[in-house]
Amino acid sequence: MMSKSHVQIVSDVSKALATLRKEIPETMQGFGAMAKSSLQDGVLSELQKELIALAIAVTQRCDACIGFHIKALIRLGATREQIMETLGVCTYMGGGPALMYAAEAVRAYEEMLPQAR
Questions:
Q1: I need a surface site. Which of 33, 45, 75, 100 has the fewest CB within 10 A?
Q2: Is the pTM for the entire model greater than 0.85?
Q3: Which CATH number fits domain 6-116: 3.40.30.10, 3.40.640.10, 3.65.10.10, 1.20.1290.10?
Q4: Could you list the mean pLDDT of each consecutive 10-residue stretch along the chain, which spans 117 residues?
C-alpha cells in the first residue's frame, strides 16, 4: 500500500476546487467569505482558530482538510508542540479513529514543513 502524500492531496483538491470556482462561483465565493471571516483574528487569534480547524479536520477524518490546515498552521508559525497538544485533545475526544488521523496530521506536518522553509 502506498502512503498518502498530503502535498499531493492538497494539490489535487486545489485543482478540483478551481473547477468548482468556475462552475459554481457564487457558492465558492460565499464559502470563501465565510472561511475568511471565520478565521480572521478576533478574541481568538487566527493561529488558535486554525488549531481548532485542524482538530475538526482530524475528528471528521478529512485528509484534504488536514493538509490545508497544517499548511496554514506552518504559514502562521505554529510550533510542533502546539500541533501535538491539539492532536492530543483530538485523541481524547475522538478515540482510536481520531488517533489514526492525528498520526496523519503528524505525517502532513513532517512532509510539508521542509517545503515551507
A1: 33
A2: yes
A3: 1.20.1290.10
A4: 82 96 98 96 98 97 96 97 98 95 95 86
